[in-house]
Amino acid sequence: MSRVLGRLRGDPLSGRNAVASSAISPLIAISNLDKRFKTRSGEVVTALSNVSLDIQENEFISVVGPSGCGKTTLLRILAGLEQASSGAVHCDGQSISGPRSDVSVVFQQATLLPWDTVMTNVLLPVHLKGDKSAAAVARAERLLAFMGLKDFTQKYPFELSGGMQQRVSICRALMREPRILLMDEPFGALDAMTREAMNVELMRIWAEERKTVIFITHSIPEAVLLGDRVIVMSPRPGRVSEIINVDIDRPRNLQTMSSSRFGELCGHIRTVFGAESSRGPSL
Amino acid sequence: MTASANTPLLNRLQVLLFAALILAVWEGACRGLHISSLILPAPSEIAGKLVSLSLSGVIWPHLWATLIEIFSGFLLGVGAGLVSGAMVSLVPVLERLVYPYLVALQTLPKVAIAPLFIIWFGYGLLSKVVVTALVCFFPILVSVVAGFHATDKDQLDMMKAFGATKWQTLVRLRIPSALVLIFAGLEIAAVLAVIGAIVGEFVGAQVGLGYLIVTLNFNLDVPGVFAVLIYLSVIGLILHGAMRFAARRYIFWIRRNDAAVMV
Q1: pLDDT under 70 in chain A at which residues?
Q2: Measured between alpha carbons, how far is residue A227 from residues A48, A62, B31, B181 in Å?
């Protein structure tokens, strides 16, 4: 399997930060982040309030919270799609001011281009950089095969199921060999069975292509199953209410979900939510 | 609908039978109730006139002239609509300054300006081509502008996150997404092109199917008018069908979601 990993990466430089990013400095450093929006009626809404968080290289971070807790806003700021109102967000020592080439995003919707084939969709990120090499095509083929989409490379998105479309979208995100993978409720639109299968799939990819992953979800079990740490957020205004270390050994699988430790952690997160909602003015 | 979709042959047969039934009732009513052919000619009479108009060769110069007006007007109007629509959509200043006037112009009934065009461009083909082009221009302009505005926000974010330049976003995302509405505009323009050419001819012409209708009507040759109308609807159907065929080919990904419209 490790041979597959090397071939999937295909880039001798991809291991360049393995030594540099020891525990001394985090890969992503968020400090005192605020984000305020102005609504159309001129009212100011605070989406994120005083969020501070350090993320280490190769860590899998789950962010869980009810809708309106600003978790998507947090991800959009990390993706460079939005700017913070105040506070600082640093990635690899640089302030994030726009989309970075070492960060890939998987959105809730697969956002595939319907007029392009699966292969062309997966190649999009490298085409945008002007790379039309055969090596890129070969890498796309390997990624698609790895995701069980070998026979679908020439199909169009509308010929695929929702789960398959999202797998294509993950292949596309991996295509530019990112250090950081941002995932915004990527399985939220899928049915429960497909969702569990995709969780297993994602753990398999993460074992193969070690990345720093920030995974947004509103499912507590999903957050615990996937994450090294779970960031629990509370709404209005969005802030970090607790950070939980998931001390369950890897590799994990769906059986992990019936272990007692798993149940304890999920229960604990629910208690955090419960405390938040009873404290809040109205929910 | 769903049951008959399984047997297309039977389905088609039903349609034909129904058409035959209508024609039979029409024919029977005209003969039985002695309806004057000045008011409503019987189908057999219209068919006879259709054949004689075609075989005598009377129709050909008129058909030819109208077809030229329709096609050149359609191409001119669509071309101008695409170019100005793209300019208005992509240059924000133009959208602010020019688009309101274009929309205001659109509310003007084009038929009302047709007499002016006769004065400006003469009695020949040119004035009809201009009327047709103008009639086709607006639906295309509006559909291009609406098409560019309809780009999916999530997909724009996706392109931005992958570091696409403005030009790359235009070519890979915005133009293809605009095509869906542009083809809807083309379907409308194809039908309007026929109307534009006929209206132009009504106002003043020496040749063309519209001119022929006016002449036949003046001579109280109502079956002849009906025969020309059949020619006109066939032209309209072919144009519309051609646009649908092109849409199925070039925006094939829409078929699934929008089966009722695109079949």
Answers
A1: 1-24, 276-283
A2: 22, 5, 84, 43
CB contact set of A60 (below 8 Å; sequence gap of 6+): A206, A212, A213, A215, A226, A227, A228, A229
Supply A248's token pair.
């369950």
Inter-residue contact A194 to A164 (CB < 8 Å)? no
Q: How many angstroms away from the CA of B261 is the closest CA of chain A?
A: 17
CB contact under 8 A, A114 and B253: yes
If asked whether residues B17 and B106 sit together in one domain, one would say no
For chain B, the residues whose C-beta falls within 8 A of a C-beta of chain A are 152, 154-155, 157-165, 168, 172-173, 176, 251-253, 256-257
Cα dihedral: A270, A215, A247, A206 (round 10): 150
Q: Please, are residues B193 and A130 in contact by the beta-carbon 8 Å criterion? A: no
ipTM: 0.82
Residue A105 contacts B where some CB pair is shorter than 8 Å: yes
- The 10s digit of each residue's pLDDT in A75-131 is 999 999 999 899 889 888 888 888 888 999 999 999 999 999 999 999 999 999 998
Q: What is the mean pLDDT of chain B?
A: 88
How many angstroms separate the Cα of A152 from the Cα of each of A167, A194, B17?
A: 11, 18, 44
Tokens coding B136: 């086709």
**In a mutagenesis test of the B interface, which of A75, A104, A113, A117 is the best target, namely the one with the most B β-carbons within 10 Å?**
A113
Most confident of A128-132, B129-133, B255-259: B129-133
Q: Are strands A60-64 and A229-234 parallel, antiparallel or unpaired?
A: parallel
Count structural domains, chain A. Answer: 1
Of A125, A123, A204, A122, whose CA–CA distance to A160 is shortest?
A122
State whether B7 and B66 are in the same domain: no
pTM (2 d.p.): 0.79
CATH number, domain containing residue B175? 1.10.3720.10
Considering the domain architecture, whether residues B4 and B52 belong to the same structural domain is answered as no
Q: Which domain holds residue B4?
A: 1-35
With contact defined as beta carbons under 8 Å apart, do B223 and B44 qualify? no
Interface mutation target, options A76, A97, A111, A169, chain B, most CBs of B under 10 Å: A111
